């Protein structure tokens, strides 16, 4: 009689083999086993994962060393597994009228080392699912070159599949990435629309005036929305965008957005999809896999560790969706009984 753990591994192995990743069978077995450990509730800590390995005749130190070798393996990378993530997500992505991606950064400090992760996720049912990332081995904000590094493989992969050709691809990002340069690059290079949150210090420019958004907001009434089509943002950019300023009655501050498509309401609606990445980071860092408390600090090992948490995250999402559409679970629509 197979245990649940063994059943999970037997389910994962054929899926990983079919992708022809060029990895040895023992290495694929370790990928499947570590992912199964996470699916069984093991936290993403080096010691916990090593302890959960099923080799009963191997002492803990040997298991921990084997886990370290896997995390340091040069062939295991987010780039290698990106096609795997997209294909595994096909059951949910194929149902979407548009595919909304979000880019954001999370950071923590462990034993005087900075763990700085720039991640791209895909929106699904008010949540976000990670698909690609880079660990920046330093403190501080990311920059345009970093954004291109994480977005180029994602855009290439998502646009390579015929089954993803019909739904439009939309990019969202928070204030750190709110650059007209990014919006222009996405539009001209990949024909991808975007909606990005602006900082107050940016300039709103048209043929008649140049004014900072901070000045526009000085007398901006709470509860109002204003739309500025076909303007430029910053004094140096000539790329035309559409700016929306909206201040919800229950919000502490207004929302400042630039979009490469028209319509204030559409920009606000699409940008709100971005908030799922905050919950996703919480799932990865504390609520679920507890990555933030891992003893691992090496950037390469963190990048590899996130492969296993992402595989587990995707399997949880797709299995939950399968059960939902088959009527095994009741969808939570937030309505009170």
UniProtKB/TrEMBL annotation:
Q: Which domain of life is it from?
A: Bacteria
Q: What SUPFAM superfamilies would the database entry show?
A: Ribonuclease H-like
User: Which species is this UniProt entry from?
Assistant: Candidatus Moduliflexus flocculans
Name-wise, this protein is: Putative transposase
């Amino acid at each position: 009689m197979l245990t649940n753990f063994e059943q999970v591994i037997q389910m994962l192995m054929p899926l990983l083999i079919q992708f022809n990743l060029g990895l040895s069978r023992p290495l694929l077995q370790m990928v499947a086993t570590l992912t199964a450990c996470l699916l069984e509730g093991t936290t993403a800590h080096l010691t916990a994962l090593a302890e959960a390995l099923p080799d009963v005749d191997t002492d803990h130190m040997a298991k921990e060393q084997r886990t370290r070798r896997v995390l340091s393996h040069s062939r295991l990378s987010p780039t290698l597994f990106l096609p795997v993530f997209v294909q595994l997500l096909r059951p949910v992505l194929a149902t979407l009228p548009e595919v909304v991606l979000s880019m954001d950064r999370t950071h923590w400090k462990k034993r005087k080392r900075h763990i700085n992760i720039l991640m791209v996720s895909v929106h699904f049912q008010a949540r976000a699912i990670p698909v690609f990332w880079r660990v920046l081995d330093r403190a501080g904000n990311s920059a345009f070159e970093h954004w291109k590094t994480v977005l180029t493989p994602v855009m290439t992969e998502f646009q390579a599949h015929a089954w993803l050709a019909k739904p439009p691809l939309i990019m969202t990002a928070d204030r750190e990435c709110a650059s007209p340069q990014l919006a222009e690059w996405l539009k001209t290079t990949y024909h991808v629309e975007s909606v990005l949150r602006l900082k107050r210090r940016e300039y709103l420019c048209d043929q008649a005036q140049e004014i900072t958004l901070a000045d526009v907001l000085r007398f901006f009434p709470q509860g109002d929305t204003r739309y500025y089509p076909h303007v430029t943002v910053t004094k140096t950019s000539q790329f035309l965008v559409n700016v929306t300023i909206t201040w919800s009655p229950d919000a502490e501050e207004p929302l400042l957005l630039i979009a490469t498509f028209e319509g204030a309401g559409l920009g606000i609606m699409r940008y709100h999809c971005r908030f799922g990445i905050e919950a996703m980071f919480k799932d990865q860092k504390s609520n679920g896999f507890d990555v933030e408390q891992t003893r691992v600090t090496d950037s390469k090992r963190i990048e590899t560790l996130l492969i296993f948490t992402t595989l587990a995250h995707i399997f949880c999402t797709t299995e939950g969706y399968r059960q939902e559409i088959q009527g095994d679970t009741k969808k939570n629509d937030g309505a009170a009984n």
